[in-house]
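Homework-ish question, so no full write-ups if that breaks the rules, but can someone show me the predicted structure for this set?
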Amino acid sequence: MNVTFYGQSCFLFEIAGKKVLIDPFITPNELAAHIDASAIEADFILVSHGHADHTADLVDIAKRTGALVICSYEIMVWLNGKGVNNCHPMNLGGQRSFDFGKIKMVFAAHSNSLPDGTYGGTAAGFIIEAENKTYYYSGDTALMQEMKLFGDLYNFDAVFFPIGDNFTMGVDDAILAAKFVKCDTVIGMHYDTFGYIKIDKEEALTKFNNAGLQLKLIEIGSSISI
Ligand code: NI
Ligand code: MN
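A: Not a homework solution, just the prediction itself:
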């Protein structure tokens, strides 16, 4: 699939002719000042959890595009209250087929509330099976034993892991996570956006390389094929 990075943990996946946006946080991100959130198209929007650095542009983009928002039941209820009604609720362990492929919502070791303090359910990640490939987008998470289970159950082509530390895994734990899920291609996310999560990117690339893994850091606004 083609993957475009919009900063923090926001990506646009183009899969099977569909545009799947995940964790839209663009407008408040100084590093993404050159990205026009109001020009982004989406057929689906995946939401890992409700924190503002994953949802700042969610309501606007969902309303403008009419995309189907796939999220926790609790986030769906919150969105309904904002006038976003085209939602599909899921919960941990649930799997569902959509036009572009199959999604499984999986546990993320993190907290989950909406910007106004509303409870958002359990924080989640997604396992995506589409076009004969399998991807794991962990969302915000700590290193966790569940990743070993995912590694046993799936053969991942690429995984998306936070590497910014402080609120999530840092580089060292992300390397362990890649080993847990048995995938050597890691797309880094959740780094550099604000002070707490600024990292030394060269050091991160070297550490992954030394571990026999490939870390891909996509320029904001750029795309890669995986
Ligand atoms: Ni978070
Ligand atoms: Mn976050």
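Now go work out the reasoning yourself. Hint: The chain has a mean pLDDT of 98.
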